Amino acid sequence: MKVIFCEECGGRNNVKDELLEQIDSQPISCQFCGNVMSKETIIPHKCPDKTINTLHYHLLIIDDDVFHLQLMKKTLEKEYTVSIASTGIHGLDLAAERQPDLILLDLNMPGMDGYEVCKRLKENPVTRKIAVIFVSARDREDDECRGFSLGAVDYISKPINLQILNARIMAQLRIRQLLTQQKQQAESMIESLQQNSMEVESEQERLRRENSGLMAILDNLPEKVLVQDINRRISWANRAAAAMCGLPLSEMTGRSSAEIISRSGAACDECLPGSARKLPRFIHLPLFDEDGGPEGAAHILPEEREQPVQLCQAAESAINSFIDQNRQAVKESLATILFGIDAIGSMLRNNKEFETIGRPVIKAAEQLDQMICSLLDFERLGKND
To answer: Taking the model in full, what pTM does it have?
Structure first.
């Protein structure tokens, strides 16, 4: 035999093994409410090879009728862990100490009755969430209504049908189990969301730092940089561009890019076609979002660099000054070299080894003399012109 529980009423059903094996083709009806149970509806109540162990559920019975108390304990402790109390005060102490899953509470007790016990249970944060089922020999509607108003989850009349009692206990324990599972899932989801949020915030902070660094670099470039949005409105400009336009960034932002570019004294063939060709031209760079859609455009005007021309002029001036100061000394040095080579050649005219080496040297010296003299004469003629 196997024990399964009805999804509808929580009723405990004893089912033969062979019937349970055939549940795919022949569903089983609940012995209490008649609900048709399929394999899917009983899976949450049993493990693959064994029924659920209900002994981990802890019940507390509070009743002044000792006979009824012992009968309930003997019946229920076969399936559950059971504690008993014969007075309301003792019941409150046990509830706070042992934290049962469910309390079966008798209404009619001397001294502190069931209503007062339930009221104190719900007022105490330690016992507030424990499910309470009232048990009473009275069956008046106002008693039942008052019990629910105090926070009870069910109301059972004496004499008790043990099968019905067990079904209602199991239904409440099942609800408690589902609530616990939902709480755990919610806490896990919240923890996951918090972790994801922390990761997103960390990534956003990293991107913010990178973006801040990039914007600082762009802001200090000598090149003029203008950025426009999808509506062709200026969204940002660096210092060089703002100075060129003669406006602070706060006054440029939101204005038409065509207006700002015209004010800058430059042109953009994409935004202002037909502008005068003599104007310096912005480089137009389309910008795209993460999905590849258009996001705007950046305009970059390269810095005009005159330094290389100035360097060339300075170098030319230095060369001309050197030639002016050393023209005669260069000619005299060349004449001395040529005279010396010619004299050495006359002294060693009969030396065949010198003839082989010296002739190319003499020829090279004569060519060098001609080139330098031509260069000096060309430079002087250029200055006179």
So the answer is: 0.45
